[in-house]
Amino acid sequence: MSVDSDSATATGTSKADDLARQLGEAITDTPEYQRYEETKAAVEDSEEVQERISEFEDLRQEFMLARQTGDATQQDVEKVEDAQKRLHEHPVMAEYLDAQDELEAKFELLNDLISEPLAVDFVGESGACCQD
Fold first, then answer.
1. What's this model's pTM, rounded to 2 decimal places?
2. Which of 71, 75, 89, 119 could form a disulfide with 66 if both were Cys (CB 3.0 to 4.6 A apart)?
3. Residue 87: other Cβ atoms inside 10 A
4. DSSP 8-state class, residue 70
């Protein structure tokens, strides 16, 4: 047994653990992640977007309560949908949602690369409790 493997055993880490940390660090250096972080910050810094988020969340909460009591109407659904559309149409939010989609696509690619030698869907298997 080598000194490296003794050290890894003593600290409870493995080569896979180290590679996973390196992967996480490498992901933060990707253009997709950088864009996501920049657009997320822009959303957080935009008072107008924050107001639209708040409006949407308030309407959605009201709708959920109305639905629970059986008082929800089609007009309530339309109000929530309109607020969501208004939110998503804001250029800062649209840019964020686009960046989020790009990052998710990157994660799917990475999942495929990790899953290939395993012959299973890495993310699908790791997050599921009860699969057939």
1. 0.77
2. 71
3. 19
4. T
